[in-house]
Amino acid sequence: FCSNEIFKYSRNNFLGQGTYSNVFSGFFWVNQVAFKRIVLTPSLTEDEIKHHKRLNHENVLELLAVLDNIDLYLLCRYKRFMVLELCSGSLFQVIQKTFDGPALPSDREVMYQIAAGLNYVHSQNLVHLDIKPENILISTNGQMKLADFGL
Questions:
Q1: CB 145 within 8 A of CB 138
Q2: Where are the domains of the chain?
Q3: Where in this chain does the record put each Protein kinase domain (predicted)?
Q4: Which residues contact 27 (CB under 8 A, 6 or more apart)?
Q5: Which of 141, 130, 145 is nearest to 18 (CA)?
Q6: Is position 36 annotated in a ligand binding site?
Q7: Of all residues in the chain, what percent carry a pLDDT higher than 90?
């Protein structure tokens, strides 16, 4: 499924980490993406993946694939990775004045996009339990994206 010709990963492209995950950038096929390695028990990892697979909205970070048993040159207990669309940064970086990405829409439009994403998530009978600036990502075209649907 993932040979070296179609799948590239570089450990040097560390993007960040949360309490329960590490995120790296790399390539999947020819697309630049983010790889999220969740460091929870397999059942909790499955819950996040199951919920995220149900979501398809312009203001929700897109889950592109799930990779199993792929050696990404990391020492990890569980070799399961979520392949996600790569974003330019987060709302937290905007607040901290360290964001170096595309121009952002007006504050009103930013709030509208966040609310639209939350409304969609709620319409799917899910609740995002960790809304914070770090979990609101900004796509390469300036679109707000809700991220991190762990429970």
A1: yes
A2: 7-146
A3: 9-151
A4: 7, 8, 9, 33
A5: 130
A6: yes
A7: 40
Q: Hey, CA dihedral for 47, 123, 63, 151, is it positive or negative? A: negative
Q: Cα–Cα distances in Å, from 51 out to 6, 13, 45?
A: 27, 27, 10
Query: Are the CB atoms for 146 and 135 separated by under 8 Å?
Result: yes
The token pair at 73 is 């040159």
Query: Which structure tokens are listed for 149?
Result: 């649907």
To which CATH superfamily is domain 7-146 assigned?
Transferase(Phosphotransferase) domain 1 (1.10.510.10)
- pLDDT one-digit tens code per residue, 15-63: 888 777 888 888 887 788 998 887 766 666 777 788 889 999 999 999 9
Q: Which one from 47, 107, 130, 148 is the annotated catalytic residue? A: 130
- Classified as helix, coil or strand, 85 is strand
* Cross-strand pairs, 34: 25, 84
Q: Tell me the longest C-alpha to C-alpha distance in the chain.
A: 45
Residue 12 has pLDDT above 90, yes or no: no
**Residue 76 to residue 24: CA distance in whole angstroms:** 14
How far is residue 120 from each of residues 2, 137, 150, measured CA to CA in Å? 33, 16, 17
Active site residue 130: yes
